[in-house]
Write a structure and sequence with these properties.
about 200 residues, mainly alpha
């Protein structure tokens, strides 16, 4: 940066005038730089928030889809428990096990993780950051519970296709496993409701 004096300095008065002009010029330049930087930070924060809102809205639909399917899933589990429980020792007629399905949806968090890695959260108001953080945490908890349900569902499949071919002990174990999977559907409902509430607060 070069400074060009408007003329020769002949007195202390001229010196202080020139000094004031230079100082004012520096302050104006610094102020403009800060304005540009603040605008840049605000733009980064706005882009990050837009990414959060897109992800949370997508995640919200995923959770609603899983929760909408749980009543039918629960009814199917109850029907299988009743059918297998009705079998008597010595029954030879095949009873095909109609295994309940599994609903597993991935939760999107790339925008949030990128914002953490690049420290973009500093450019977002703290109150907003807390709401988004709570929503993402709720979605992670929901995903963890889905993983638990997936593990239970995989254990179910190990009993084979025919309940009549199982021993009484195996049938009891299968019914117990079905009850576990049924309990999972109630837990996923409870966690899902809390997740949707946290999401709605973040998106308000």
């Amino acid at each position: 940066m070069e400074f060009h004096l408007p003329g020769p300095i002949r007195s202390f008065k001229d010196f202080f005038i020139h000094l004031g002009i230079v100082t004012l010029g520096i302050l104006i330049a610094l102020g403009l730089e800060q304005i540009v930087e603040a605008h840049h930070r605000a733009k980064i924060g706005q882009d990050s928030v837009a990414g959060f809102r897109r992800e949370l809205a997508e995640n919200r639909e995923q959770v609603k889809e899983v929760m909408a399917a749980t009543p039918a899933l629960r009814a199917k589990i109850a029907a299988q428990i009743a059918a297998i429980g009705a079998l008597r020792e010595g029954d030879k007629a095949p009873l095909t096990i109609d295994y309940p399905g599994i609903y597993f949806d991935f939760i999107y968090s790339a925008s949030w993780e990128t914002a953490i890695a690049t420290q973009t959260l500093y450019y977002i108001p703290a109150a907003d950051t807390r709401r988004y953080s709570a929503a993402y945490s709720a979605f992670r908890l929901f995903l963890d519970e889905e993983r638990t349900g997936l593990a239970t569902w995989q254990d179910l499949r190990s009993f084979g296709p025919d309940a009549a071919a199982l021993s009484p002990e195996q049938r009891r174990a299968l019914i117990q496993q079905l009850h576990r999977y049924q309990s999972y559907t109630y837990v996923i409902d409870t966690i899902g409701k809390g997740t949707l509430e946290a999401c709605d607060q973040a998106l308000q």
